[in-house]
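agent> Task received from the user: take the single chain below, predict its 3D structure, and emit structure tokens. No templates, no multimer pairing.
agent> Plan: (1) validate residues, (2) run structure prediction, (3) serialize to tokens, (4) report one or two observations.
agent> Step 1 OK, no nonstandard residues flagged.
tool_call: predict_structure(input=
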Amino acid sequence: QAKALTAGSSVKVATVIGFPFGYSAVEAKIAEIVLAMVDGVDELDVVCNISAIKNKDFQYIAGEINHIMPIIRSKGKTIKVIIESGVLTKEEIIACCDIYGAAGIDYLKTSTGYAEKGASVEDVALFRAHLPAQVQIKASGGIRDYAFAKELVDAGATRLGCSAGVAIVSGAPVQDSGY
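)
tool_result: status=success, residues=179
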């Protein structure tokens, strides 16, 4: 329906895969990806398996992305991987940057918006320091005002995910939604 409503415009349609914690089996994520592509999606936001990261099972993380990437690339789609950086250690973030950077993803994204802590300037700067130059960064989660949005961009974010976009651009105060 989103694809039909945006037909003829430059608006890209995106969806999440494995939301919200990335616990789905690789096969289930692949099925979600294929269905989304059949439905016309342009961009896929794939949630990495948070448990695998916390268990330091980086072989699983690498295997998952290496199964997913050829499918997404075969159709020329954009992939953003969400790692939920607010619940990860610096070492876990760097390991993710290494794995996903080597895999050739388009974006590494900070948050689904589901965790208590969303984007931070420190995490975005850490991403930028450990990702190849061609991998972009999407900061998401808890971005409510222009000053913070600018700090994230200055730290290296090339996209922002925020529900307060109009207020950020206009400088209007934002009513706190709890996240």
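agent> Step 4: summary for the user.
The longest strand covers residues 43-47.
agent> Done.
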